[in-house]
Amino acid sequence: MKARQFKLGPMDNFSYLLWDEDTLHAAVIDPAWQPEKLKSFLAEAKLKLQAVLLTHAHPDHVNALGSFEDPEGKLPVYLNDGDYFMLGSRPAGLRNVSDGEQLQAGSLKISALHTPGHTPGSVCYLAGGFVFTGDTLFIGECGRVDLPGSSPEALYESFVKLAALPDAAVVYPGHSYNGDTSTFGVQKEYNLYLKLARLGRRDDFLKAVG
Predict the structure, then answer these.
(1) CATH number at residue 162
(2) Is 44 exposed, middle or buried, given 0-12, 13-18 or 19+ CB atoms closer than 10 A?
(3) What is the tens place of the pLDDT at every residue in 29-71?
(4) What is the per-residue pLDDT for 101?
(5) Closest by alpha carbon to 49, among 15, 11, 81, 80?
(6) Which residues are known to be catalytic?
(7) Sign of the C-alpha dihedral, residues 31, 148, 130, 12?
């Protein structure tokens, strides 16, 4: 399985393409700002788009969703229903994704981990040793918890989940803050928030995000 990171737009957002090298089945993650770059890569690599995966529904992560929608709803668009309220309009293929759900997008096998905190419906997607963390976990940082629907307490519980992931798993975040990628092993040592969650220091975590 391969992944390609695209830094797009004025807020250093990351969109991603994930694909199977044998079947060329692909998924796009958080399409935003410059869909033509994503579509150009899809065409050049002859990839066959099977699904759209949304880590959450903030506009800077979904503002190019319309460029990938299928009016007949045949292309699934996965988003946890906790974030449906933020969508201006719901795509025909919108499907709820739950914690622990195993998604099959063509030949791609993707696991969903519900990680609320930044938003009620934030999700991390696990596939092929990659973890696409959206705005839940950044390199050395955590997502904001001062926005409508945010919850520091929920973010702590989500970080406890993330701290249990394998050290070798690759972190692919939703923005280029302090770096573009890392591993969970590194982040468990140098990301204060993940380190506090790993050690079970809830009160210190809540103070740090406050």
Answers:
(1) 3.60.15.10
(2) exposed
(3) 999 999 999 999 999 999 999 999 999 999 999 999 999 988 8
(4) 97
(5) 15
(6) 56, 58, 60-61, 118, 135, 175
(7) positive
User: Are residues 64 and 31 in contact, defined by beta-carbon separation less than 8 angstroms?
Assistant: yes
CA distance 1 to 70: 25
Full residue range of the structural domain in which residue 113 is found: 2-209
Q: pLDDT, tens digit, for every residue of 130-184?
A: 999 999 999 999 999 999 999 999 999 999 999 999 999 999 999 999 999 999 9
Rounded Cα distance, 143 and 157, in Å: 13
Residue-wise pLDDT tens digits, 80-101? 999 999 998 899 999 999 999 9
What domain count does the chain have? Answer: 1
